[in-house]
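Student: I would love a firmer grasp of how sequence relates to backbone shape in proteins. I am handing you a single protein, as its sequence and its fold in token form. I am told such tokens are a discrete way to write the fold. I hope you can help me see how the letters and the tokens relate. Take your time, and here it is.
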Amino acid sequence: MKNITHILLVSALTINLGSTMTPTSRAAEPLAPQVFNWQTARHGKLPYLLYLPPGYEAQAAEKWPLMLFLHGAGERGNNVWQVAVHGPPKLIRQGTNFPFLVVAPQCPTDELWQADALLRLLDDLTVRHAVDTNRLYVTGLSMGGYGTWSLGLAAPGRFAAIAPICGGANMIEAFLVSRDQAAAVRALPVWAFHGAKDPVVPLEESARLVNALRLVGGTEVKFTVYPEAQHDAWTETYDNPAFYEWLLSHERGRPQPASGRAEAQKTPTSDALLAADTAFAKLAAQKDAAEAFFAFAAEGATLLPAGEPPVKGREAIRQTMTALSGSELRWVPIAAELSRSGDLGYTWGTYDYRAPTADGQTNSHHGKYVTVWKRQPDGAWKFVVDIGNPSPAPK
């Protein structure tokens, strides 16, 4: 059974004002409104490697796509050639030709990627080079994955697509975008990548952002999890020609062909299945877990809670979940796989569970889950088996 912790950050401040406290009149207002005017002038430098594609000089009138590549923490410093240790710059030095410009800046030692500096760099490049501003792409790994998320959310209208690898960001960035930017965030194509066994940046870092974008209505949010990969999720990604084909298929302001939308509606995809589990998790978090399980369970569904007897049937599942009233159940869907027939599939992710005990304590645990789904005649997905696997308690 999925069990999910609802994280509560609660702070309490108790002040004993004594019995002599009296109301304060407006004439003796102890709070004085003030205004502080501030101004800063940030500056710095970003060394970078620049790649111009074959034919760039000969075709002076043509505008070219541009990829901004952000390296990881290990490549910071003052030797710009360190930037070519991984990713597209490495492939270029090995002889790969790309049909777009590649810009790979170097972050200074002990600093993080700063969105304002990167945007100014792009402004400069688009003035001095033949860049198609409707085909700007950003990708990065590890610290650069964090930078990719941050830059994409800070200026979603600037990019045709982004591809963060083993990164993450503060989910509040996805939820609290300005009203003017909300539509651009929803329309921003994203393809995120992560290794399932990453010991450096937990898989959940990418999963939370992916799910946050889907929850706010992201129209094209893909997520690839490499089951056996650890922190290096970038080698397989950057070695895959389909990755570059996906990037270049996007152009800012160009609508998706109608035929593509119709085909997506007819053909089941793993993204659609993952979206179903995401909607399931959202309903359980916002309303009632018992009703969420009842709504998404197939008629003969089976719940397999760890260490407990199986629970069979929608109504029995609802009664079981109702009996857990007062508990907090949250989960994060991470990936989905479909069968060849397209009518069966499974999702998996992480869960957290918290419930009060009779003695006033809290019983909590977390783990991973697998949910098996079946596509119904009306095209909706319903789960047929839900399995929870708690992580061992720390010793």
Notes: The first helix runs from residue 87 to 93. Residues 266-390 form a domain with the Nuclear Transport Factor 2; Chain: A, fold (CATH 3.10.450.50). The chain has two domains: 48-255, 266-390. The two ends are 23 Å apart (CA to CA).
